[in-house]
Design brief:
single chain, seven-stranded antiparallel sheet, alpha+beta
Length: 158
């Protein structure tokens, strides 16, 4: 194959790999299950919008999928909307989880307490569909804006 032919097919190959890998990530993380189970409610206007957030999805001690600085959290009166930048999730629609369907736990990793790791595990759904692991700063901002609907465990709670 000559160099001109390679240059001609490279953009198509790159786009194909990008779309395929983002679709696979959406499936592995559970995003597609969440968007089906918790469809977005666009009528809910956000109290606060947190952009460029990082999180990981996963049911195990090790994250199944990490999303770095491409998520958006909308804190709404009746729940939390999670969205992703279109370029990183072309098939991933925002999903809206009611407050009653979110279970909040301190996250520990390899025995490190949550205050060193600075993260919380949000169990999404009842029964739980998957978990979303968010950082302390975002969790505290969500708590402050939620009007008491999203309450982080106190230091004495497990």
């Amino acid at each position: 194959m000559n160099q001109n032919a390679l240059l001609a097919i490279f953009p198509f190959l790159f786009v194909g790999l990008w779309v395929g890998s983002t679709a696979l990530l959406g499936a592995m993380s559970g995003w597609y299950r969440l968007q089906d189970r918790f469809p977005d409610r666009p009528e809910q206007q956000p109290i606060i919008r947190l952009r460029f957030q990082s999180a990981s999805f996963g049911d195990s001690r090790f994250a199944v999928a990490n999303y770095g600085n491409c998520l958006r959290y909308d804190v709404c009166p009746s729940g939390l909307r999670v969205g992703i930048s279109r370029i990183f999730g072309p098939f991933s629609r925002p999903f809206f989880v009611p407050w009653s369907q979110i279970k909040i736990e301190k996250k520990s990793f390899l025995g490190l307490p949550h205050y060193i790791l600075g993260a919380y595990r949000l169990g999404l759904g009842n029964p739980e569909e998957t978990s979303l692991n968010i950082y302390d700063r975002a969790a505290r901002r969500i708590e402050a804006a939620s009007g008491g609907n999203f309450r982080l465990p106190s230091p004495g709670e497990a």
